[in-house]
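so my prof wants the structure for this chain in the tokens format not the other one, which i didnt know existed until like an hour ago. anyway here's the sequence
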Amino acid sequence: MTETATKKTLVIPQVIVGLGNPEPKYDRTRHNIGFAAVDALSRTWKIPVSENRKFQGEYGEGIIPKGEKVRLLKPLTYMNLSGQSIQSVINWYKLAPESVLIIYDDMDLPLGKTRLRLSGSAGGHNGMKSAIAHLNTNNFPRLRIGIGRPKNDKVEDIETISHVLGKFNPSETQLMNDVLDFVVECVEMSIKQGVEKAMNKCNSKTITVADQTNLD
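here's what i got, hopefully its the right format
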């Protein structure tokens, strides 16, 4: 197989979407870790995001190191309508759904774990349900960030909602800052080498409080 043919098989994200809710009361909650991830990418790449009414979200675009163009999006439609914003971006730029990488929270993963996949179901996540419905496919990459479950295994729905919409405690915040640094590495690798290659890195590591700045 030629090098050109090999490159055509790579899934390279062009739009990085973080899921969350727009109101200040949701800021820095577990459910908004997707927003926090895009904020981390925005800071690292020096690509500012600002409200774009056409895309119903905060949007920015720029060039990351080594020259790849990338677009960042935080839908402001509220979680269960996230797909509207994502669809508006890919329709405007005539991009394939496979070029979208969506970052969001996952209770089924413990704190410190990330999971990168090329496709999959919504797994009960309302933001992903909306994305799949509006893109009319589940064949696009996604990066899940573990937020853990409430300590009580027999938790009621109301406690689950409280957990998801709650904020991280100080030790968790320290851990999640390291996780977000790692997420930036995973996304950069996805763009430069393809999602499948990045999966090996992103799915094998668990970030712990003891981890320092060296996340390799």
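also thought this was worth mentioning. The first helix runs from residue 3 to 8.
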